[in-house]
Design a protein that fits this description.
This protein is α+β, with helices and mostly antiparallel strands and about 575 residues long. It contains 14 helices and 27 strands. A hairpin with a 4-residue loop joins strand 6 and strand 7.
Length: about 575
């Protein structure tokens, strides 16, 4: 009996007694021209019976001159009345629904007050994918406070960070089902439901969705919400009694498969840059266009049309990539569109003009790490002259000039050429290719006297930037010792370097001591000429066996010596 009581008590701690199977929170950013539609949707929620395992909670924000001004929280109660009758839980007064903190506060409050095994959030309002800026419509604009929740600046991701994990996230807003938005919310929810196309003002059919929560299977519920939305806009459907012929799309996407798809997407396209002259733009021109400036296409349709256009030319990568995308899509479809679309949108402007305007903002998105905007840059290439790099700092390390350079803001990989000037017989240019997106990088130039350097950036088409000129002084270094890296995080990479000035040649003795003064390693070298020498510590078995700690490395040559402290992590 005690064991049974303990088991019941343990279950109560995990799932509080009386907890519903589903808590659905609806965040209605309606302090704008959509407020009447918000009131209609709340009334639609009240118009049907609810499953007994559902808590349906709404936070609405409507204009001060509306019937329900300011922020109001309600637990939806079914009725047959033509107006909102669900009792207020809280009257919040004026709130800013365009502030990500307002959204986060509602989510945490709602799931704490109404605990459940399954959690769904609906973000309701105007939307426009990742486009626009702080002065125009984006997602959840609040006209009263003149604010909105941005996507490319990370505010949507911020609002959905530090909340309970969601089973389902629904965007009842235009054009939000895109790869760019999905990458922002991939860690927030297991499933994301939304439309890559415009959502009519009637929005999602809540009266048809509510009965679906009698199931406790989130994937089944998400797929059914997607299909119910599509059915509601068929001629004579609940959201289309006027038989309008509207372009409608909706999908449910499984986020656990997205990161694998994103990585495969990046690797496939970066590996196929030799095909761009064959014409990605003609393939894109066959796709259904949507979104701001009609600059979005459906990712599934793009992959299918590429397959039709090139077939085996793109194999073996395209088939597996299509399979990975199909693994992500739980449910998808469209109405009144003569194309196979409906899964998720992808930014692919029809011409370079739109690309040049938007790529810099696109680079702020999480999806930018998968380098689609770099791929598009190559689609539209060749481009003109790239910008020159900037000098951040310079200094001497042993007999090398160390330059820290900042890469220019540019949507593609760049090479850098460092040339000694004036050119001397036997002089060699140094070629450097930093990682794409790496903000700063180092150039190491061996020097033996004062001079100056010419540094140029080169883009993938061979166009060369204006030159950056760097003058430098030179002073003959003395006896110097250097360990890199220091601290030593990987014993497989460590090395000791030194510089012997004139008059200090001969036998170089190096000794490594631990913090107790005990010698743990030593090595001797014969150096007949002044200049640099190197000891690959990583090649010494005894060094690789050393534990963590602080060590002293000493160098002796003749009567001269120096030493330095190094740390092994």
């Amino acid at each position: 009996m005690k064991r049974i009581l303990l088991a019941i008590l343990g279950s109560a701690l995990l799932f509080p007694l009386g907890a519903a199977d589903w808590t659905v929170l609806v965040y209605m950013a309606a302090d704008n021209n959509l407020w009447q539609n918000a009131a209609q949707d709340i009334n639609a929620m009240e118009s049907v019976p609810q499953p007994t395992n559902l808590d349906l909670i709404v936070q609405s924000d409507m204009p001060v001159d509306s019937e329900h001004p300011g922020g109001q929280r309600r637990k939806i109660r079914p009725d047959a009345l033509p107006y909102i009758s669900s009792p207020l839980l809280e009257d919040l007064g004026p709130i800013d629904s365009g502030d990500p903190q307002t959204l986060k506060d509602f989510i945490n409050w709602g799931f704490q007050r109404y605990p459940s095994q399954r959690k769904m959030l609906v973000i309701w309002g105007h939307g426009d994918n990742w486009f626009k800026d702080g002065e125009t419509k984006w997602i959840c604009p609040d006209e009263g406070s003149q604010s909105l929740i941005s996507v490319s600046e990370g505010e949507l991701q911020e609002a959905l960070t530090g909340i309970p994990p969601l089973d389902i996230l629904v965007f009842d807003a235009c054009s939000m089902q895109s790869l760019e938005v999905l990458a922002e919310v991939v860690d927030a929810a297991d499933l994301v439901v939304g439309s890559e196309e415009l959502v009519p003002v009637a929005g999602f059919p809540y009266q048809d969705m509510i009965p679906l929560f009698s199931s406790d299977d989130p994937e089944a519920v998400a797929g059914q919400i997607s299909q119910t939305y599509l059915e509601s806009y068929e001629a004579g459907g609940s959201q289309n009694p006027g038989n309008l012929s509207l372009p409608i799309t909706c999908s449910a996407v499984r986020t656990s498969s997205l990161n694998s798809f994103f990585s495969a997407f990046r690797d496939f396209f970066l590996g196929k840059s030799c095909y761009w002259p064959m014409g990605m733009l003609p393939v894109r021109s066959e796709c259904w266009e949507m979104g701001t400036g009609y600059n979005d296409i459906d990712v599934g349709e793009l992959l299918s049309r590429m397959d039709e256009a090139w077939g085996e030319t793109w194999e073996p990568g395209l088939g597996p990539l299509k399979d990975k995308w199909e693994t992500c899509v739980v449910s998808s479809g469209s109405l009144n569109i003569a194309h196979e679309v409906g899964s998720a949108a992808l930014w692919f402007p029809a011409n370079q003009q739109y690309y040049d305007v938007w790529w810099n903002r696109y680079a702020q998105l999480e999806f930018a790490q998968y380098r689609w905007f770099q791929i598009l840059h190559r689609v539209y290439g060749p481009h003109g002259q790239p910008p020159a790099p900037e000098l951040v700092s310079q200094g001497m390390v042993l007999s090398n000039l160390r330059l820290e350079l900042r890469q220019p803001v540019y949507p593609d990989s760049l090479w850098y050429i460092v040339k000694p000037r004036p050119w001397v017989e036997g002089g060699e240019a140094i070629f450097i290719k930093p990682e794409f997106g790496q903000s700063t990088f180092y150039a190491w130039v061996p020097v033996s006297g004062p001079g100056w350097l010419e540094i140029e950036a080169v883009n993938p088409w061979g166009a060369i930037s204006d030159s950056l000129y760097v003058a430098y002084d030179y002073a003959e270094p003395g006896l110097e010792l250097l360990v890199a890296p220091n601290p030593v995080s990987s014993r497989a990479l460590a090395s000791a370097k030194w510089y012997l000035p004139e008059g200090s040649t001969g036998t170089v003795e190096l000794k490594l001591y631990n913090s107790r003064g005990q010698k743990v390693l030593s090595k001797s070298f014969v150096q007949a000429e002044p200049g640099e020498g190197i000891w690959l510590l990583s090649a010494e078995p005894e060094f690789r066996k050393l534990g963590r700690g602080i060590f002293i490395l000493s160098l002796n040559v003749g009567k001269r010596s120096c030493r330095l402290k190094l740390a092994i992590l």
